[in-house]
Design a protein that fits this description.
There is one protein chain. The chain has 17 helices and 11 strands. It is an alpha/beta fold and 421 residues long. It folds into 2 domains: 106 residues, no CATH class; 272 residues, Rossmann fold (3-Layer(aba) Sandwich), CATH 3.40.50. The chain has a 7-stranded mixed β-sheet with strand order 7-6-5-8-9-11-10, sandwiched between helices. Strands 2-1-3-4 form a 4-stranded mixed β-sheet.
Length: 421
């Protein structure tokens, strides 16, 4: 049994994609636009020892498996095509025996994964318990301390690594990111002289946006590289009077009495069990009547498992957890002292943001590979294109939740934000 026959046994005969392998075998239509090319025996071992998405990711990131028909900086088209075919069936005992005999014992022996892969959850205990300060710092460093130059190639001049908000479908990524900050700034009803705390501030985009408008903004991030870049950007833009970014756990911020708190893309990292103290922290940092905005990726239902799937956990966000927006709102309400005023879903906007990040990576491919290596560049192309599909297919969403620290006065927000098509 050759490799193409094994592939067909697992996936069925009616393939829409093309499969080719290093043993010279092939399956699927010869004129297929997209396909898989298994290039090495090591790739076979990865696929056999970790069936499913983890094995495919290992083989792809290591360069042992190619996605035919798409650029590695933006493999979206190939992933879309593969999503229709990659439905592994359970082979019979006779088929399994034939597959094992054809492949040989050597392919069933575990081999080291690509260097880009994080340790499995059970081995991270050496770094501390899940969502302890030390382990959180390691997880953030894994993802965000890759290379500031690489991030600039992917994110563009805004250096903003969160969902943009597109005013229309023809808006550029830069326009959409600026629009996102404007929206959050206005939702928080910020005025010159106000004080903003931005937790998980990334490269300081929200901090700089607010500072340019006369707001005193403090940002904190667990990423050393982000803090260095953000603070230098503040200096370069002459915003030192109003802005500061610290390398710090948000829980170590001692200042209080802020007019507003923003959390843009942090909630995914803190763990569902930690939502109550997380919202208590933000509430306690606000003055009475102050506003908070929570921006985070969510699941479309509240009952789904919160832990990330293997590829995301090993190659993207170690220890990341997602839940439904209902769980987030409940956590904010149940601590007391916060009133939820408004929430909205930007799912489609995140798919468009990821599309534009993939485009940037593809256009800067050679420079990106030179900066971080081909394996890491492939890892990012795969991750962003796959996540784009997830948002388009409503497997994940992106929600804003706006709340006020309650007191005897109504918040400084519109009586009702009007709906416009």
């Amino acid at each position: 049994m050759n490799l193409a026959q094994i592939f067909s046994t697992l996936l069925g005969k009616d393939l829409a994609i093309r499969f080719t392998a290093y043993d010279g075998s092939s399956a699927g239509p010869e004129d297929a636009e997209y396909g898989l090319d298994l290039l090495t025996p090591r790739g076979t071992t990865y696929l056999v020892t970790a069936p499913g998405e983890l094995g495919l990711a290992r083989a792809y990131v290591s360069g042992d498996l190619a996605l035919i028909g798409s650029h590695p900086g933006d493999p979206y088209g190939a992933l879309q095509a593969l999503a229709g075919d990659l439905k592994f069936s359970k082979p019979s005992a006779v088929q399994l025996a034939a597959i094992a005999k054809s492949l040989g014992r050597e392919h069933f022996k575990l081999i080291p994964p690509p260097q880009q892969e994080a340790l499995p959850r059970w081995r991270r205990i050496a770094e501390g318990l899940r969502h302890s300060r030390g382990r959180d710092a390691d997880a953030i460093g894994y993802h965000y301390d890759v290379s500031n130059d690489f991030y600039e190639m992917v994110l563009g001049p805004a250096m903003t690594y969160t969902c943009a908000v597109y005013g229309d479908r023809d808006a550029t990524l830069e326009e959409a990111q600026e629009n996102k900050y404007r929206l959050i700034f206005e939702k928080l009803a910020l005025q010159p002289g106000d004080r903003l705390l931005d937790i998980g501030c990334g490269w300081g985009g929200m901090v700089r946006y607010a500072a340019r408008r006369g707001v005193h903004a403090l940002g904190v991030t667990l990423s050393v590289e982000q803090a260095k870049w953000a603070q230098q950007s503040i200096v370069d833009q002459g915003l030192g009077e109003f802005a500061e970014v610290r390398h710090s756990d948000y829980r170590d911020v001692v200042e209080g009495g802020f007019d507003a708190v923003s959390s843009i893309g942090l909630t995914e990292h803190i763990g569902v069990a930690n939502y109550p103290p997380y919202f208590e922290f933000m509430r306690d940092k606000l003055r009475p009547g102050g506003l908070l905005l929570n921006h985070c990726i969510t699941r479309p239902v509240n009952s789904a498992r919160s832990k990330a799937r293997p590829f995301i956990d090993r190659y993207v966000f170690p220890d990341g957890e997602l839940t439904g927006v209902g769980t987030i709102i409940t956590a904010a309400q149940d601590i007391g002292g916060l009133e939820v005023l408004h929430e909205e879903n930007f799912r489609e906007h995140y798919a468009m943001t990821l599309r534009d990040w993939n485009k940037n990576l593809m256009e800067n491919w050679d420079a990106a590979v030179a900066e971080v290596g081909e394996g890491t560049a492939r890892q990012w192309g795969l991750y962003m294109a796959g996540c784009r599909m997830g948002f388009e297919m409503e497997m994940v969403e992106l929600h804003h939740v706006l709340a006020v620290k309650t007191d005897d006065h109504r918040p400084n927000t519109p009586l009702r934000p009007w709906w416009t098509p």
